Amino acid sequence: MPDLAKPGLTHAGHYENFPVASIFLPARLRAPVRAIYAFARSADDIADEGDAPADMRLAQLAQYHDHLHALERNEPVDHPIFRELATHIRAHALPYGAFHDLLSAFEQDCVQTRYAHFGEVMGYCKRSANPIGRLLLKLYGDDDARHQAWSDGVCSALQLINFLQDIVPDWHKGRVYLPQDEMAHFGISERQIAEGRADALWQQFMKQQIERARRMLQAGAPLGRALPGRIGLEMRLIILGGECILRQLYEARGDVFSRRPVLRPRDWGGMLWRATFPGKGRVAGACGSGGCAR
Are 44 and 106 in contact (CB under 8 A)? Predict the structure, then answer.
């Protein structure tokens, strides 16, 4: 699921939207989570790192599809990432489709750098972020359809938050994950991103983006209470991390040009307290109907 402490599992940069094999996870789940992470991280690096042309990147990702197909046929694969992954796929009956979906998102990053409208952005999130949450639920032994829907909401929200955090570094990589029609509605061009100009129109545009991500995160927040024990604690921390970044974005009026919002050491104490004692305050509730505020 798309560690807001460091940036997204599913797009540029080595900053993850879920704590990788966190100490809060049950020990039995840390190895499979690390294996899923290694798969996603290495495939993401193929799409994002270096200067290889798109066709070469796509060919490498096609090999990853081939390795997955070989595992599906119970054929041996001489690749360390897939050898490790195979053990956990079989032990937990993880769906191969989720891994193929992740690869399709990385393939999209090789060829698509602009998104005409929010529907296109959500189509990307469905394959770049949501499979992670569904894989984690499968590891937890949770097949509840409502939980899966909540997970999709949380994962997509976290991916949107990553996009808002990473507007500047993504721009330098030639990508803009913001809906082009909504930018045009507010009279915002890519030149404004290049200039780092957070004027009144930019602030209004970003407020809309922040509020939409907040609503999506809040809609999926019941998952943090529905999951039991340490797994639920982990999920509440993930949600609270997303909430904290949204609050920083709101307080900065969307100015990601001056400082990129990140979780700081002092944020973790409050998050851990709220995650441990959820009855003392709403999870994903600091961003209320009146906006994101402390």
Answer: yes
Q: Residue type at 83?
A: R
**Residue pair 240/208 in contact by the 8 Å Cβ criterion:** no
Residue ranges of domains in the chain: 27-292
Taking a C-beta distance cutoff of 8 angstroms, is the pair 253, 198 a contact? yes
Secondary structure letter of residue 81 according to DSSP: H
Q: What is the mean pLDDT of residues 236-260?
A: 95
46 burial via Cβ count (<10 Å: 0-12, 13-18, 19+): buried
Tens-digit pLDDT profile for residues 113-137: 999 999 999 999 999 999 999 999 9
The alpha carbons of the chain give a radius of gyration, in whole angstroms, of 19
By the 8 A CB rule, do 153 and 122 touch?
A: no
pLDDT surpasses 50 at 148: yes
What is the 3 state secondary structure string of 189-229? CHHHHHHCCCCHHHHHHHHHHHHHHHHHHHHHCHHHHHCCH
- What whole-number distance in Å separates Cα of residue 77 and Cα of residue 5? 34
For 179, phi and psi rounded to 5 degrees? -60, 125
As a whole number, mean pLDDT of residues 146-171 equals 96
CB within 8 Å of 63: residues ≥ 6 apart: none
Distance between CA atoms of residues 27 and 34, nearest Å: 11
For the domain made up of 27-292, give the CATH fold.
Farnesyl Diphosphate Synthase (1.10.600)
Phi/psi at 245 (5° precision)? -65, -40
* pLDDT for residue 19 is more than 80: no
Q: Which uninterrupted H or E stretch holds 237? A: helix 229-251
Which tokens is 88 given?
């956990």
- pTM to 2 decimal places: 0.88
